[in-house]
Amino acid sequence: MKIDVIGAGSLGLLLAGKLASIGNELRIWCRGEIQVQELKRKGLTVNYEDEREPIWIPGERMEAYTTEEFTDRSLEEPAEWIILTVKQKVLHTEIMKVLEPLRNLKPHIICFQNGSGHMEVLQELLPNAHLYAAVTTDAAKVLSPSEVMHTGAGETWIGQLLHSSKDIGTLTDQPQAISFLEQLNLAGFLSLLSNEVESKIYRKLLINAVINPLTAIWRIPNGELLASSDRIQLMRELFEEAIQVYNAAGIQHDANAWDNILQVCQNTAGNTSSMLADVLAGRATEIKWINGNLLNMADRSGLAVPTHRWICRIVEGMNVEKG
Ligand code: PAF
Prior knowledge:
Elements: E1 2-6, H1 10-21, E2 25-30, H2 33-42, E3 44-48, E4 55-57, E5 63-66, H3 70-76, E6 81-84, H4 88-99, E7 108-111, H5 118-125, E8 130-136, E9 139-144, E10 147-152, E11 155-159, H6 175-186, E12 190-193, H7 197-218, H8 229-249, H9 257-267, H10 274-281, H11 291-301, H12 306-316
Parallel strand pairs: 1-2, 1-6, 2-5, 3-10, 6-7, 7-8, 11-12
Antiparallel strand pairs: 3-4, 8-11, 9-10
Helix pairs in contact: 4-5, 7-8, 7-9, 7-10, 7-12, 8-11, 11-12
């Protein structure tokens, strides 16, 4: 299967390496020429934390380009699937521009972003596209521009937002989605189709809205959030406000949602959250699409969420995008 991965960060490299290792034709779209050259020269390596052998894809067994080249190449030779693993900010700026010319086509696109709001924007940009959202708990860490570490095996849920799936009744009658899912499973990602991916997006949003900003502000790995009652108290305040927002908006949440967040902190204790990684790398964070979207929902319901409002402003002021 010919697959484009747009976004060669941790998740993008992980997906590309593992999907290429089972014989798929991968094109990896990077932000800069330096990474393109390194992938061509050194190939792509996926490492594991346990004793499993690393996966190595030689440079000549995959293609690497900059995202600027995407439109022309993709129009000339489209892939069967486009995987979007860029960060929200990049998706809403550079990537919207390179995707726009596909407006009249019907590409199959799958989005792996944290946060919410992007699916609706993409649907508007590409009204004929088959758009899927993916919610994953697989975790990865970039070691170098051509090397990634799979730091945690999780689950990946894939589905269409109900209001955007105009041409299907259920997901199971989508042969393309099923064959893509097979590739993910063969590549070692435990992946499932979901008719309620939207609720999985909101479940993950809740986790990210509590864990990510606090780890970014305090510069601590996820597990360290549980190290003091002051930290847990602030997590709890963010959680309570988010639940009020969900209740007002009619969004379902699990009865054990709080315990689930604590569990994620434990399961990913040594991980640098994606928001902390962004802050440390001087990149724009995804706060606007995580806590920022909660603020928008709160405003629509006339709810005051002072802790989220304050935390958004702090994180927004932390990063000045370098490029
Ligand atoms: O964004 C992240 O870092 C992850 O979604 C999570 C679950 C918080 C683990 O680090």
